[in-house]
Amino acid sequence: MLGVRVYGEIEYYFGMFKFGSLVLLFILSIVANVGGFGGDYIGFRYWKKPTGPIIHGIDGFGQVFVLAAAYYVGTEIISLAGGESRNPKRDIPRAINSIVYRILVVYVGMPFFQGLICPSDSPDLLNASSKTASSPFTIGFVAAGWKSAGHLVNALILVAFVSAANGVVYVQSRTIYSLALTKRAPKVFAKTTSRGVPYVAILTSNLWGFLCLMNRKLSAGQVFSYMTSVGGTAAYISWASITLTHLWLRAAAQKQEVSINTFPYKAWGSIWIYRANFVFYVFLLLVQGYTVFKDPFDWKNFIACYITIPTFVILFVGYKLYFKTRWIPLNKVDFSDRREWVAAVSEAKSDCRSWKRRIWDLFKD
């Protein structure tokens, strides 16, 4: 409720803490792996049968994509921050480039080190019948000889949870607020404080926290499974929509003979990469819940896996019909302000210094 300046400052330090925590956990994982806590040398023992990768065949492989999507979702929220950035034409390309390194460190590094020290068949991991479960790091550290490791990991997870909740409420409230401004959501969500904070959208976003009360009737494992299924399928729809928009923009630029080199940011690689991405997202969206069709039919998980698709179609088609909007033809997409983009980016680049020069300037002054 204090505004984006306070949120950004808090999230900055949260982000530094989380990154530092991950590096610490990676180092401790290496120590645990080599027997530094008094246990045996592990090496790559857990990467072989019966606990190795893809041990459940195509079923397990397909289900992993749903969980992965639920974790990866959020990397696209930098577009929201662009609306409240002082210089989005400079800041957004920088932020996009940083995502690559974040994926390598967080989304690739974390499962790699967890897989080194924690067996996939540990009974302490979360499953459908779990009431509580331990982090793979906790399981690995305890098995390696550090019996009180759970206290450290719990502290790190608690701070990460507060940061995640903070970020989720920010993203959701700004999304609803933006939709309300363009008549895609009820106008009540466009109400703000005198300082421009969308308080109605923020309070509404917090109400989703009451879904945790599902734990009163269902196990924590079931609730977690439902949440990740809904979130994962929503992620695929979101990414497919983003990729389709990108393809539409590139096609419009080609149609109007506008060079993509005049854009402030140019997506890496061939256009065929993004065409393949779009097909891949749609494919995963349709097949990610195919295990529910096995005998007996699991109707609860079917709803969790596929409820997002009809919801998206109803909202999208309903909006198009109600407001009678039309697709913008390729030859009418507006590129008139790209010269301003180029000028702003050129100015920003002229002030950029390499990291070596920044360090040198710091000590030089």
Characterise this structure:
- By secondary structure, this protein is mainly alpha-helical.
- It folds into 2 domains: about 5-215, no CATH class; about 220-345, no CATH class.
- Helices cover about 65% and strands about 0% of the residues.
- Helix 1 runs antiparallel to helix 6 and helix 6 (about 150-180) crosses helix 7.
- The longest helix is centred in the middle third of the chain and has 36 residues, at about 220-255.
- The radius of gyration is 23 Å and the shape is globular.
- The model has no long low-confidence stretch (mean pLDDT about 80).
Which characteristics define this entry?
globular, 2 domains, 365 residues, mainly alpha
Task: Tell me briefly what this model is.
Helices cover 63% and strands 0% of the residues. By secondary structure, it is mostly helical.
Write the layout of secondary structure elements.
Elements: H1 4-33, H2 57-72, H3 78-82, H4 88-117, H5 136-143, H6 149-181, H7 199-207, H8 220-255, H9 271-287, H10 299-306, H11 308-323, H12 338-350, H13 355-364
Domain Amino acid permease/ SLC12A: 1-326
Protein name: Amino acid permease/ SLC12A domain-containing protein
GO molecular function: amino acid transmembrane transporter activity
Encode the helix/strand succession as letters.
HHHHHHHHHHHHH
- Count up the domains: 2
Could you tell me the mean pLDDT? 82
Tell me about the largest β-sheet.
none
Share in helix: 55-70%
Annotation field: number of helices: 13
Estimated share of beta-strand residues: under 5%
Derived structural class: mainly alpha
Terminal CA distance reads 38 Å
Query: Looking at the structure, what is the overall shape?
Result: globular
Which value, in Å, is the CA radius of gyration?
A: 23 Å
How many strand segments?
A: 0
Unreliable stretches covering 5 or more consecutive residues: none
